[in-house]
Amino acid sequence: MKKSDYIIRSNHSLSDVLKKINNNPKINCFFVNDDKNNFIGIIAEGDIRRAIINGYNVEHSISEIINRNYSYLSSTDVDLKKLIKYRENGLKLIPILNQKKRLVDYINFNNQKSYLPAEALIMAGGLGSRLRPLTNNTPKPLIKVNDKPIIQYVVEQLIKYGVKKIYVSIGYLGSQIIAFFKENNQFGINVEFIEEDKPLGTIGCLGNFHEKIKLNDIIVINSDILTDINYESFYLNHISNNNNISIASFNYKISIPYAVLDLNNKKVSGFSEKPKYNFPCNAGIYIINKSYLNIIPKNKFFNATDLIDSIIDKRGVVGHYQIKNYWRDIGAHEDLKMAEEESKKIFNE
Protein backbone atom coordinates (compact mmCIF):
# COMPACT_ATOMS: atom_id res chain seq x y z
CA MET A 1 0.00 0.00 0.00
CA LYS A 2 1.12 3.56 -0.70
CA LYS A 3 1.09 6.19 2.03
CA SER A 4 -1.49 8.18 0.03
CA ASP A 5 -3.93 5.25 0.27
CA TYR A 6 -4.19 5.89 4.01
CA ILE A 7 -4.70 9.68 3.85
CA ILE A 8 -7.96 11.62 3.81
CA ARG A 9 -8.68 15.35 4.17
CA SER A 10 -10.44 16.76 7.24
CA ASN A 11 -13.14 18.42 5.07
CA HIS A 12 -14.28 15.09 3.65
CA SER A 13 -17.54 13.47 4.66
CA LEU A 14 -18.36 10.24 6.42
CA SER A 15 -19.53 8.99 3.03
CA ASP A 16 -16.09 9.70 1.52
CA VAL A 17 -14.44 7.53 4.17
CA LEU A 18 -16.93 4.71 3.61
CA LYS A 19 -16.28 4.85 -0.15
CA LYS A 20 -12.51 4.54 0.43
CA ILE A 21 -13.13 1.53 2.68
CA ASN A 22 -15.43 0.00 0.08
CA ASN A 23 -12.83 0.49 -2.65
CA ASN A 24 -10.12 -1.11 -0.52
CA PRO A 25 -11.52 -3.35 2.25
CA LYS A 26 -8.01 -4.01 3.59
CA ILE A 27 -7.91 -0.40 4.87
CA ASN A 28 -10.31 0.56 7.65
CA CYS A 29 -8.31 3.32 9.33
CA PHE A 30 -7.03 6.60 7.86
CA PHE A 31 -4.68 9.45 8.64
CA VAL A 32 -6.34 12.86 8.48
CA ASN A 33 -4.59 15.94 7.05
CA ASP A 34 -5.92 19.49 6.95
CA ASP A 35 -5.95 21.62 3.78
CA LYS A 36 -2.30 22.61 4.42
CA ASN A 37 -1.21 18.98 4.63
CA ASN A 38 -0.68 19.10 8.41
CA PHE A 39 -1.41 15.87 10.23
CA ILE A 40 -4.29 16.35 12.69
CA GLY A 41 -5.50 12.89 13.66
CA ILE A 42 -6.85 9.46 12.80
CA ILE A 43 -10.28 8.19 11.82
CA ALA A 44 -11.33 4.54 11.75
CA GLU A 45 -14.32 2.60 10.51
CA GLY A 46 -15.51 2.26 14.11
CA ASP A 47 -15.56 6.06 14.49
CA ILE A 48 -17.84 6.33 11.45
CA ARG A 49 -20.14 3.61 12.80
CA ARG A 50 -20.44 5.28 16.21
CA ALA A 51 -21.08 8.66 14.60
CA ILE A 52 -23.99 7.29 12.55
CA ILE A 53 -25.45 5.61 15.65
CA ASN A 54 -25.25 9.00 17.40
CA GLY A 55 -27.26 10.74 14.67
CA TYR A 56 -24.68 11.94 12.14
CA ASN A 57 -25.66 11.50 8.50
CA VAL A 58 -23.20 10.19 5.95
CA GLU A 59 -22.71 13.61 4.35
CA HIS A 60 -21.56 15.13 7.63
CA SER A 61 -17.95 16.33 7.77
CA ILE A 62 -15.52 14.02 9.56
CA SER A 63 -13.83 17.01 11.27
CA GLU A 64 -15.88 16.59 14.48
CA ILE A 65 -15.20 12.90 14.96
CA ILE A 66 -11.46 12.76 14.23
CA ASN A 67 -9.38 11.13 16.96
CA ARG A 68 -6.97 13.95 17.80
CA ASN A 69 -5.52 12.16 20.84
CA TYR A 70 -3.41 9.86 18.70
CA SER A 71 -0.27 7.80 19.27
CA TYR A 72 2.70 8.39 16.98
CA LEU A 73 6.46 8.01 16.57
CA SER A 74 9.00 10.69 15.69
CA SER A 75 10.90 10.20 12.43
CA THR A 76 14.05 11.76 13.93
CA ASP A 77 14.19 9.47 16.96
CA VAL A 78 12.32 6.19 16.57
CA ASP A 79 11.49 4.98 20.08
CA LEU A 80 11.26 1.19 19.83
CA LYS A 81 10.07 0.79 23.44
CA LYS A 82 7.15 3.09 22.69
CA LEU A 83 6.45 1.19 19.47
CA ILE A 84 6.39 -2.12 21.33
CA LYS A 85 3.97 -0.66 23.87
CA TYR A 86 1.65 0.49 21.07
CA ARG A 87 1.77 -2.98 19.54
CA GLU A 88 1.05 -4.69 22.87
CA ASN A 89 -1.93 -2.36 23.36
CA GLY A 90 -3.42 -3.58 20.10
CA LEU A 91 -2.82 -0.52 17.92
CA LYS A 92 -2.52 -1.44 14.25
CA LEU A 93 -1.74 1.79 12.38
CA ILE A 94 0.91 4.17 13.74
CA PRO A 95 1.87 7.46 12.02
CA ILE A 96 5.52 8.50 11.74
CA LEU A 97 5.70 12.31 12.00
CA ASN A 98 8.53 14.77 11.41
CA GLN A 99 9.28 17.77 13.63
CA LYS A 100 6.65 19.83 11.80
CA LYS A 101 4.04 17.12 12.52
CA ARG A 102 3.86 16.14 8.86
CA LEU A 103 3.16 12.52 8.02
CA VAL A 104 6.34 11.01 6.51
CA ASP A 105 5.68 7.30 6.97
CA TYR A 106 3.55 4.82 8.86
CA ILE A 107 3.60 1.42 10.53
CA ASN A 108 0.89 -1.11 9.76
CA PHE A 109 1.09 -3.98 12.22
CA ASN A 110 -1.24 -6.00 10.03
CA ASN A 111 1.64 -6.68 7.65
CA GLN A 112 4.82 -5.65 9.45
CA LYS A 113 6.35 -6.42 12.82
CA SER A 114 8.48 -3.40 13.68
CA TYR A 115 10.17 -0.21 12.41
CA LEU A 116 13.89 -0.53 12.92
CA PRO A 117 16.06 2.60 12.60
CA ALA A 118 18.69 0.73 10.59
CA GLU A 119 19.75 0.25 7.00
CA ALA A 120 20.70 -3.11 5.52
CA LEU A 121 23.29 -4.62 3.20
CA ILE A 122 22.68 -7.92 1.42
CA MET A 123 25.87 -9.60 0.20
CA ALA A 124 24.89 -11.11 -3.17
CA GLY A 125 28.07 -11.20 -5.23
CA GLY A 126 29.31 -14.76 -4.73
CA LEU A 127 29.84 -17.42 -7.40
CA GLY A 128 27.73 -20.12 -5.74
CA SER A 129 30.24 -22.75 -6.89
CA ARG A 130 28.89 -25.54 -4.67
CA LEU A 131 25.43 -25.20 -6.22
CA ARG A 132 26.59 -25.81 -9.79
CA PRO A 133 25.17 -26.54 -12.32
CA LEU A 134 22.20 -24.53 -10.93
CA THR A 135 24.40 -21.44 -10.75
CA ASN A 136 26.00 -21.78 -14.17
CA ASN A 137 23.57 -19.25 -15.62
CA THR A 138 21.75 -18.02 -12.52
CA PRO A 139 23.25 -16.17 -9.53
CA LYS A 140 22.79 -18.02 -6.26
CA PRO A 141 20.51 -15.37 -4.69
CA LEU A 142 17.99 -16.03 -7.48
CA ILE A 143 17.94 -19.81 -7.01
CA LYS A 144 14.38 -20.63 -6.02
CA VAL A 145 13.16 -22.27 -2.83
CA ASN A 146 9.54 -23.31 -3.34
CA ASP A 147 9.19 -21.04 -6.38
CA LYS A 148 10.61 -17.97 -4.62
CA PRO A 149 14.21 -16.69 -5.00
CA ILE A 150 16.33 -16.93 -1.85
CA ILE A 151 16.99 -13.18 -1.87
CA GLN A 152 13.27 -12.46 -1.88
CA TYR A 153 12.92 -14.23 1.48
CA VAL A 154 15.79 -12.07 2.79
CA VAL A 155 14.25 -8.82 1.54
CA GLU A 156 10.74 -9.62 2.75
CA GLN A 157 12.03 -10.42 6.23
CA LEU A 158 13.85 -7.08 6.43
CA ILE A 159 10.75 -5.23 5.21
CA LYS A 160 8.64 -6.91 7.90
CA TYR A 161 10.85 -5.22 10.47
CA GLY A 162 10.55 -1.80 8.86
CA VAL A 163 13.90 -1.52 7.07
CA LYS A 164 13.47 1.10 4.34
CA LYS A 165 16.90 1.30 2.73
CA ILE A 166 18.68 -1.78 1.41
CA TYR A 167 22.03 -1.96 -0.35
CA VAL A 168 22.74 -5.04 -2.46
CA SER A 169 26.33 -5.97 -3.22
CA ILE A 170 26.52 -7.69 -6.60
CA GLY A 171 29.21 -9.35 -8.70
CA TYR A 172 28.67 -12.62 -10.55
CA LEU A 173 25.67 -12.27 -12.94
CA GLY A 174 24.72 -9.11 -11.07
CA SER A 175 22.62 -7.74 -13.95
CA GLN A 176 20.07 -10.50 -13.28
CA ILE A 177 19.73 -9.39 -9.66
CA ILE A 178 19.21 -5.77 -10.75
CA ALA A 179 16.54 -6.94 -13.21
CA PHE A 180 14.83 -8.96 -10.47
CA PHE A 181 14.41 -5.89 -8.25
CA LYS A 182 13.17 -3.76 -11.15
CA GLU A 183 10.56 -6.39 -11.95
CA ASN A 184 9.52 -6.56 -8.29
CA ASN A 185 9.14 -2.86 -7.47
CA GLN A 186 6.20 -3.75 -5.23
CA PHE A 187 8.74 -4.13 -2.43
CA GLY A 188 8.26 -0.39 -1.87
CA ILE A 189 11.77 0.23 -0.53
CA ASN A 190 14.84 2.15 -1.60
CA VAL A 191 17.35 -0.31 -3.12
CA GLU A 192 20.87 0.68 -4.18
CA PHE A 193 23.31 -1.68 -5.88
CA ILE A 194 27.01 -1.86 -5.07
CA GLU A 195 28.92 -3.47 -7.93
CA GLU A 196 32.16 -5.31 -7.13
CA ASP A 197 34.66 -5.30 -10.00
CA LYS A 198 36.64 -7.91 -8.09
CA PRO A 199 35.83 -10.14 -5.08
CA LEU A 200 36.13 -8.08 -1.88
CA GLY A 201 35.29 -10.73 0.72
CA THR A 202 32.23 -11.04 2.91
CA ILE A 203 32.14 -7.37 3.91
CA GLY A 204 34.84 -5.56 1.92
CA CYS A 205 32.37 -3.68 -0.29
CA LEU A 206 31.34 -1.57 2.73
CA GLY A 207 34.71 0.14 2.59
CA ASN A 208 33.73 1.80 -0.69
CA PHE A 209 30.42 3.34 0.33
CA HIS A 210 30.04 3.49 4.11
CA GLU A 211 29.95 7.31 3.94
CA LYS A 212 26.49 7.01 2.35
CA ILE A 213 24.98 5.34 5.40
CA LYS A 214 22.77 7.84 7.23
CA LEU A 215 21.48 5.85 10.19
CA ASN A 216 23.64 4.75 13.13
CA ASP A 217 23.52 1.03 12.42
CA ILE A 218 23.50 -1.27 9.43
CA ILE A 219 22.32 -4.88 9.25
CA VAL A 220 24.55 -7.06 7.06
CA ILE A 221 23.33 -10.45 5.87
CA ASN A 222 24.53 -12.98 3.32
CA SER A 223 22.09 -13.50 0.45
CA ASP A 224 22.10 -17.29 0.75
CA ILE A 225 20.62 -17.41 4.26
CA LEU A 226 17.05 -18.46 4.91
CA THR A 227 15.91 -17.31 8.35
CA ASP A 228 12.98 -15.91 10.28
CA ILE A 229 15.26 -14.21 12.79
CA ASN A 230 13.57 -11.65 15.03
CA TYR A 231 15.42 -8.56 13.84
CA GLU A 232 13.76 -6.39 16.48
CA SER A 233 15.06 -8.58 19.29
CA PHE A 234 18.48 -8.68 17.62
CA TYR A 235 18.57 -4.88 17.31
CA LEU A 236 17.40 -4.25 20.88
CA ASN A 237 20.11 -6.62 22.13
CA HIS A 238 22.64 -4.66 20.05
CA ILE A 239 21.76 -1.19 21.37
CA SER A 240 21.01 -2.17 24.97
CA ASN A 241 24.52 -3.66 25.29
CA ASN A 242 26.18 -0.73 23.47
CA ASN A 243 27.73 -3.15 21.01
CA ASN A 244 29.93 -1.86 18.22
CA ILE A 245 29.17 -5.00 16.26
CA SER A 246 26.72 -7.79 17.06
CA ILE A 247 27.06 -11.28 15.62
CA ALA A 248 24.01 -13.48 15.17
CA SER A 249 24.76 -17.13 15.93
CA PHE A 250 23.16 -20.52 15.65
CA ASN A 251 23.79 -23.56 17.82
CA TYR A 252 25.78 -26.31 16.15
CA LYS A 253 25.47 -29.68 17.89
CA ILE A 254 28.09 -32.40 17.79
CA SER A 255 27.55 -35.91 19.14
CA ILE A 256 30.60 -38.07 19.83
CA PRO A 257 29.69 -41.74 19.28
CA TYR A 258 32.39 -42.94 21.67
CA ALA A 259 33.35 -42.59 25.30
CA VAL A 260 35.62 -39.54 25.68
CA LEU A 261 38.45 -40.01 28.16
CA ASP A 262 39.35 -37.40 30.78
CA LEU A 263 43.13 -37.40 31.02
CA ASN A 264 45.27 -36.08 33.86
CA ASN A 265 49.05 -36.49 33.54
CA LYS A 266 48.52 -39.23 30.96
CA LYS A 267 46.25 -41.13 33.34
CA VAL A 268 42.54 -41.62 32.90
CA SER A 269 40.62 -39.77 35.62
CA GLY A 270 37.21 -40.50 34.17
CA PHE A 271 35.26 -40.53 30.95
CA SER A 272 32.09 -39.19 29.32
CA GLU A 273 29.93 -41.70 27.50
CA LYS A 274 28.89 -40.45 24.03
CA PRO A 275 28.87 -36.76 25.00
CA LYS A 276 27.03 -34.03 23.12
CA TYR A 277 28.41 -30.54 22.65
CA ASN A 278 26.81 -27.26 21.54
CA PHE A 279 28.85 -24.54 19.87
CA PRO A 280 27.66 -21.01 18.99
CA CYS A 281 28.57 -20.47 15.32
CA ASN A 282 28.63 -17.40 13.13
CA ALA A 283 25.29 -17.20 11.26
CA GLY A 284 26.43 -14.65 8.67
CA ILE A 285 24.21 -11.85 10.02
CA TYR A 286 25.59 -8.75 11.75
CA ILE A 287 24.55 -5.37 13.09
CA ILE A 288 27.39 -2.86 12.86
CA ASN A 289 27.62 0.65 14.27
CA LYS A 290 28.64 2.89 11.39
CA SER A 291 31.35 4.60 13.45
CA TYR A 292 33.43 1.42 13.05
CA LEU A 293 32.98 1.03 9.29
CA ASN A 294 35.99 3.24 8.53
CA ILE A 295 38.14 0.28 9.64
CA ILE A 296 37.23 -1.45 6.37
CA PRO A 297 39.79 -0.57 3.65
CA LYS A 298 38.71 0.61 0.21
CA ASN A 299 38.99 -1.78 -2.74
CA LYS A 300 40.64 -4.52 -0.70
CA PHE A 301 39.57 -8.06 0.14
CA PHE A 302 38.18 -7.95 3.67
CA ASN A 303 35.99 -10.45 5.51
CA ALA A 304 33.54 -9.87 8.33
CA THR A 305 35.87 -11.84 10.59
CA ASP A 306 38.64 -9.34 9.78
CA LEU A 307 36.40 -6.52 10.96
CA ILE A 308 35.55 -8.42 14.14
CA ASP A 309 39.24 -9.00 14.88
CA SER A 310 39.99 -5.30 14.28
CA ILE A 311 37.21 -4.17 16.63
CA ILE A 312 38.47 -6.56 19.32
CA ASP A 313 42.00 -5.20 18.85
CA LYS A 314 40.67 -1.67 19.34
CA ARG A 315 38.92 -2.82 22.53
CA GLY A 316 35.52 -2.30 20.97
CA VAL A 317 32.43 -4.16 22.09
CA VAL A 318 31.65 -7.30 20.11
CA GLY A 319 28.26 -8.71 21.08
CA HIS A 320 26.46 -11.95 20.40
CA TYR A 321 22.82 -12.81 19.73
CA GLN A 322 21.59 -16.38 19.54
CA ILE A 323 19.00 -17.06 16.85
CA LYS A 324 16.17 -18.97 18.47
CA ASN A 325 14.15 -19.13 15.28
CA TYR A 326 14.80 -20.85 11.96
CA TRP A 327 18.18 -20.53 10.19
CA ARG A 328 19.56 -22.31 7.15
CA ASP A 329 22.65 -21.51 5.08
CA ILE A 330 22.01 -22.63 1.49
CA GLY A 331 25.55 -23.37 0.45
CA ALA A 332 25.22 -26.79 -1.18
CA HIS A 333 22.64 -29.00 -2.88
CA GLU A 334 21.72 -30.87 0.31
CA ASP A 335 21.05 -27.53 2.05
CA LEU A 336 18.76 -26.46 -0.78
CA LYS A 337 16.84 -29.70 -0.55
CA MET A 338 16.36 -29.31 3.21
CA ALA A 339 15.34 -25.66 2.79
CA GLU A 340 12.64 -26.72 0.32
CA GLU A 341 10.98 -28.87 2.98
CA GLU A 342 11.60 -26.61 5.99
CA SER A 343 10.44 -23.37 4.39
CA LYS A 344 7.00 -24.77 3.56
CA LYS A 345 6.17 -24.68 7.25
CA ILE A 346 8.28 -21.72 8.39
CA PHE A 347 7.20 -19.18 5.77
CA ASN A 348 3.68 -20.36 4.96
CA GLU A 349 2.23 -20.25 8.46
Number of domains: 2
Measure the end-to-end span. 22 Å
Helix content: 10-25%
| Class inferred from helices and paired strands | alpha/beta
Low-confidence stretches: none
Outline type: elongated
Oligomer: single chain
Q: Strand sequence of the main sheet, in spatial order?
A: 11-10-7-12-17-14-18
Order of helices and strands: EHEEHEHEEEEEHEHEEEHEEEEHEEH
Describe this structure in words.
The chain is α/β, with parallel strands linked by helices and 349 residues long. It has 2 domains: 106 residues, CBS-domain (Roll); 229 residues, Alpha-Beta Complex (Spore Coat Polysaccharide Biosynthesis Protein SpsA, Chain A). The protein is built from 8 helices and 19 strands. The strands form 6 sheets. A 7-stranded mixed beta sheet has the order 11-10-7-12-17-14-18. A 3-stranded mixed beta sheet has the order 1-2-3. Strands 4-5-6 form a 3-stranded mixed beta sheet. The mean pLDDT is 89.
Describe the secondary-structure layout.
Blueprint: E1 7-9, H1 14-23, E2 29-33, E3 39-44, H2 45-53, E4 73-74, H3 80-88, E5 93-97, E6 103-108, E7 118-124, E8 144-145, E9 148-149, H4 150-160, E10 165-170, H5 174-183, E11 190-195, E12 217-222, E13 225-227, H6 231-240, E14 245-255, E15 259-264, E16 267-273, E17 276-289, H7 304-313, E18 318-322, E19 327-329, H8 333-346
Parallel strand pairs: 1-2, 4-5, 7-10, 7-12, 10-11, 14-18
Antiparallel strand pairs: 2-3, 5-6, 8-9, 12-17, 13-19, 14-17, 15-16
